[in-house]
């Protein structure tokens, strides 16, 4: 356990080494350093996992804290650089390092020949170091340091192809929107320290929290609300989700890294880590579930109308993170973590498969310009089938089924029927948009001549993730988290597990069948075109467009924030009120100066008259004062 700090140190050293090289080293050298440091962290993580399961796997309250040094001390505030390993951080560490290593290995092939090869691995190494720091930190301030570091690296990686101005705008958009949530997180940190005089998880998680008043807006409520907004911003949930689809302009391995294992799961981790605050504020916890429920439905609909393959997967990520928030709203922390793990597997598989597909199609991303590709790239086709089946929750054989089943069962047992209905609707919509993408790309009429590449650094990561996306990934035993997270599983089975499994299986099968009818081949697409004009004009013009444009959040934020800002700046460019105030003050001083110059003219009679006027004014003031 004492080697825990190496999981951060190795990627950080990789970043420093690659940054010093300034891209002068060969691609082989850069990839050896970039992937080698992550593999070293992976080996340390394997040792830690082995040590944990050999010695502490049955200890629910196991916590290991490694204090490295004191960061700073200001009066009573002492912040130490300390790392915390418990069941929750061990799960996150395993997912981040494991899936991150696979993505790095894949990136050695995908980024080959691209400008900035060394810079790419420098950024991703720094990204990994900050993400590991985020989940291992033993105090909120150190966690926030990693939180902001992840945001900075996402900005650099999203705008990696900086020669295109649109990519820079997309990176800036992601950076600004996530910062709005980060501001709320900072406010939460201030309020926590003000109330409890500590930022240490070891102390905060042992506090017996009590509401300072019976009022609905007490201190703990505000803290939980600010923590929730911070989590929403980083995990791309309603209404701060629209940055994630714009983040697709970065390299595909970056999309896999951000969506699958690291950045978007930070909000889920934060809520579970601070679960004692949320348990004291059931209204905020219920709001978390509401946000997750709406996100599942709305952005499953958005994915259904996209033509860009990466945007389909991006909206899918938003929706699947919504499932985790739905579970958090029902206090099912273990179910949320289980879905986080399985989602990391199948979403990384889908994104990396999409990267191989885009490469084969000469960087074409529109699914309707592809078709009939399953004969030419069979491995990628199989990866899409397994990844799509796991995303859809195909029963028994996929990892996604087991995690979604746990969420739905525990939601049913808790009688959260609104959350249950939202999850069921999502289970119906997910296979439709997923297999719509698969059938359009791999079946039907061939529209593009693919190029085939079978390098081991391309195929080996896909095969590993493919295996983890099957029932193998669904049978992974997660360590116990805390007493508040353990639930009586036998209780859940008394509420009709078999019926829920049958219903979910039927919904998934029906969704795949519908997708096959409309998008399997060219004749089916003609049927879809015949049915389409029957849809009313209102649905065609408004609902479909709303879904396609992500329910208009970009337009709304442009109307509320960007246009007023541009209007104000335009007005200020013509007449700056600050300049006006300064100019008035200057003019007043000049007038006084001119008056003083006139009074000092060197004429004796003027001075005598001035003295007499002053004496008369003083005399008048004395008489008025006496009269009063």
Automatic annotation (TrEMBL):
Keyword annotations of the record: Membrane, Transmembrane, Transmembrane helix
Cellular-component GO terms for this entry: endomembrane system; membrane
InterPro entries listed in its UniProt record: NADHpl_OxRdtase_5_subgr, ND/Mrp_TM, NU5C-like, Proton_antipo_N
Gene Ontology biological-process entries: ATP synthesis coupled electron transport; electron transport coupled proton transport
Principal subcellular localization: membrane
Coiled coil: none
PANTHER family given in the database record: NADH-UBIQUINONE OXIDOREDUCTASE CHAIN 5
Gene: nuoL
Membrane-crossing residue ranges in chain numbering: 31-50, 62-83, 89-108, 120-136, 142-162, 174-196, 254-272, 284-305, 336-361, 373-397, 417-439, 460-478, 498-521, 542-562, 574-592, 604-625
Lineage per the UniProt record: Bacteria, Pseudomonadati, Pseudomonadota, Gammaproteobacteria, Enterobacterales
Cellular localization per UniProt: Endomembrane system; Membrane
Record domain NADH:quinone oxidoreductase/Mrp antiporter transmembrane: where: 137-430
Membrane topology (UniProt): Multi-pass membrane protein
Ranges where the NADH-Ubiquinone oxidoreductase (complex I) chain 5 N-terminal domain occurs: 71-121
Source organism superkingdom: Bacteria
GO function term, MF aspect, one: NADH dehydrogenase activity
Protein name, entry field: NADH dehydrogenase I chain L, membrane subunit
NCBIfam families according to UniProt: NDH_I_L (TIGR01974), PRK06590.1 (NF005141)
